[in-house]
Amino acid sequence: YRGIAQAALEERAMTKYPAEFGFFGQEFIPGTMIPFELVLYIGLAVIMGFVLHKTSYGRRLYAIGSSPEAARFSGIKVKKIRITNYMLMGLFSGIAGVLLTSRILSARSNIATSWDLEVITLVVLGGVSINGGKGTMWGVVIASFLVGYLKFGMGLLKLSGTIMTIVIGTLLIIAVLLPRLLDGYKNTRKMRRQQAEAALQSAKA
Description:
The chain is 73% helix and 0% strand. The protein is an all-alpha fold. The protein has two domains: 1-111, no CATH class; 114-205, no CATH class. 8% of the residues are buried.
C-alpha cells in the first residue's frame, strides 16, 4: 500500500483539504478541553477490550496466539480469524490515517514511516508477548500514554529524532529481555528449591 501511495503522490504533498476536515484531529469536544481523537481512541479501546477479553472471538485469538496448531485441532477456524484480524487492522490503520491527515491537513507517501518501531515498543511494553497468546488491551493503552508522554518530554527538551529513536529502541530491548530474564530467574530458583527438597528427602531416608 505504501508503494501505491508512492506511485500516486510521488514526492508531492496533498494539502487541499477543507478547514472543517481538521475537526477530527485538531478540535476539542464542544465545551471541554478533551480532544476529539482522544475520545475516539478510548472508545475504540473499550470496544476492542470487551471483544478481546469478554467474547469467544477474543478467546479464540488468544488460543491461536498460544498455538495455531492446537487451536486448529480444537475446531477453531484459524485462517478465517486471521483474515478477520487483518481486516480489523486495516480498518484501524485507515482511521489512524484519517486522524493524522486531519491533524496536519496534509498527506505524503512517506509519512509515519518510522512509527513501526514505536508501535511494536508500546505493544510489547504493554505486556503483549511477542510469541503470542498473552497480553491485555489495557496494558497497551497505558503503555501508549507512557510512550506518548515520554516523547512529549523529549520534545520539550528539544532532543533530536535520532535520540528519540534510540530511546524507543532501548525501551523495546528492555521490554523484550526483562520478562525472559525474570522467567529464567524464577525457573532457576524453582529448580534449586526442588533440588534442595529432593536432597533433604534423601537425607531423611
